[in-house]
Automatic annotation (TrEMBL):
Protein family according to the UniProt entry: Belongs to the methylglyoxal synthase family.
Top EC class for this record: lyase
Organism: Archangium gephyra
Gene3D superfamilies linked: Methylglyoxal synthase-like domain (3.40.50.1380)
Protein name according to UniProt: Methylglyoxal synthase
InterPro entries, sorted: Methylgl_synth (IPR004363), Methylglyoxal_synth_AS (IPR018148), MGS-like_dom (IPR011607), MGS-like_dom_sf (IPR036914)
Keyword Transcription regulation: no
Length: 126
C-alpha cells in the first residue's frame, strides 16, 4: 500500500507552504498527497501538485488526518503551524500531533524540519 504524505498550513503559513512545495515539486509529485481543504486548493493552484483534499481544519480536517495516521495510512505529516495565533480548533490540532507521537509518524511543524524529512529519504522507503 502506498502511504500518503499530508501537507497542512495555517493561514499565515500558507504562502510559505506553497513556496516550499514549488521548490520541492519534483520530490513531492512522486507521492500521493492529502491536505486540509484550503491548503490543498492552494497547493494545486500555486504549486501544480495533485492533492486529495479533506475537510478544512476548523471543520474537522485535522481530525480526519488524525484518523488516517492512527490507521497507518500516512508516511509523514508536514504541518506549517502558526504559533502566534489562537485557533478555534486547537484541540483537534493537539490531537493530530499526539496521534503522530503515539504512532511514531514523522511530523514537521516548520519548514526547517520539513526540509530534514525530505532530505532524510524517509519517504522514499514508502
Ligand atoms: O486549519 C488548518 C489546520 O489546523 C488548515 O485548514 P485549511 O487548510 O482548510 O486552512
Amino acid at each position: 500500500m502506498q502511504k500518503t504524505l499530508v501537507l497542512i498550513a495555517h493561514d499565515n503559513k500558507k504562502l510559505a507552504m506553497v513556496q516550499w512545495a514549488r521548490r520541492h515539486h519534483a520530490c513531492l509529485s512522486r507521492h500521493k498527497i492529502q491536505s486540509t481543504s484550503t491548503t490543498g486548493q492552494l497547493l494545486q493552484e500555486g504549486a501544480g501538485l495533485k492533492v486529495e483534499c479533506l475537510l478544512s481544519g476548523p471543520l474537522g480536517g485535522d481530525a480526519q488526518v488524525g484518523a488516517l495516521v492512527a490507521s497507518g495510512q500516512i508516511s509523514a505529516v508536514i504541518f506549517f503551524v502558526d504559533p502566534l495565533t489562537a485557533m478555534p480548533h486547537d484541540p483537534d490540532i493537539k490531537m493530530l500531533m499526539r496521534i503522530c507521537d503515539v504512532h511514531d509518524v514523522p511530523l514537521a511543524t516548520n519548514p526547517a524540519t520539513a526540509e530534514c524529512i525530505l532530505r532524510s529519504h524517509l519517504l522514499e522507503k514508502e
